[in-house]
Give the backbone structure.
Amino acid sequence: MSKSSARPLSPHLQIYRPQLTSVLSFAHRLTGVALGIYAVALVAWLTAAAAGSQPYSIVQNFMQSLLGQVLLVGGIFCFFLHLCGGIRHLLWDTGRGFELRAIYASGWIVVAASTVLTVAAWIGSSILAR
Amino acid sequence: MIIRSSDQVPRTTLLKRFPLPRNFGVSKQSRVERGRRWPAPAGATRVKTFEIYRYDPDSGNNPRLDLFEVDLDECGLMVLDVLIWIKSKVDSTLTFRRSCREGVCGSCAMNIDGTNWLACTRFVSETREHATIYPLNNMRVIKDLVPDLTHVFAQYSLIEPWLKSKTPAPETERLQSPEERRELDGNWECILCFCCTSGCPSHWWNADRFLGPAVLLQAWRWLLDSRDEATGERLDDLEDPFRLYRCHTILNCTRTCPKGLNPGKAIAGIKKMMIERRS
């Protein structure tokens, strides 16, 4: 077996074309991991809120800073992308939507829907905050 | 934007590769280095550049990327014609597999412009301005564009791709209705080129234990065959966290199949069959 291990391995991730199929799948996994981290942050935020106005104001100040807002929008987008992607996965689990046309259509719908929902959530929250 | 069939070449490309270093996570012996440039012959009219992965096992050097300038007026229409022209006119050491030149044998499967396809059915006019040709992904390279397909064929023999029955053989054929035969359509046409398996990221990470879309498409073909009587045993063999269930519906396989088959759908069918027999 030493001969086969001496042979080089052809490149894969380094040269394969990013396509909607692989990119959305990777994004689903990445947003899932990100949401896991955001869940911990959510608990931290709730704990700070329960602890009193002083610790909460520290969290509040961070959330209102530029970095906090960017992370917030990113988190909302991760949430909706993972949600819409999850629905796409559930549709596949029924056995539907496997023709190439349907794969691409549902993929673009997931991207469009999560963008629209993120923008809607952002606008909705700023209206509610007023 | 909406791809209707796998032979559709994308009109625009936002990203040619993932934003990673060229030799990201690659072992020392697999690092691809810059190779030599082979200029076009004098008097060439329509010149196109092809970057081709080269590896010479006898030299002891690392694989490299050679740049060939090809006179398209002298070649046929397909990428395989370009490779044959390079081999006959420019560099006779260029090594690749080929046989039927019409897309039915699966020998010339390789990675062209980042996606896997058969070189004999890919038009040169459909490739990028500076086309890239690599061997099938995540395979041990024997020489240049020739991958070692031993382990994927071993995975194929693992699913026992033959008719298994307990009832004794009838005097004539084992009969099958036209509807039962129609169920096999879309599954028997696989030419085992392994474009799908080498394009599956899940197979990249678990090539030793995950069977891959090509093999699982054939597993589905035997599960669907009405004459096969070992359905239960076949499903038992797939009850394993790796053999079937490393598929995460990435669907690169369906996108890249040069015969227009749908391994992703077949794998979903197997998963459904696995669940349905439990209830």
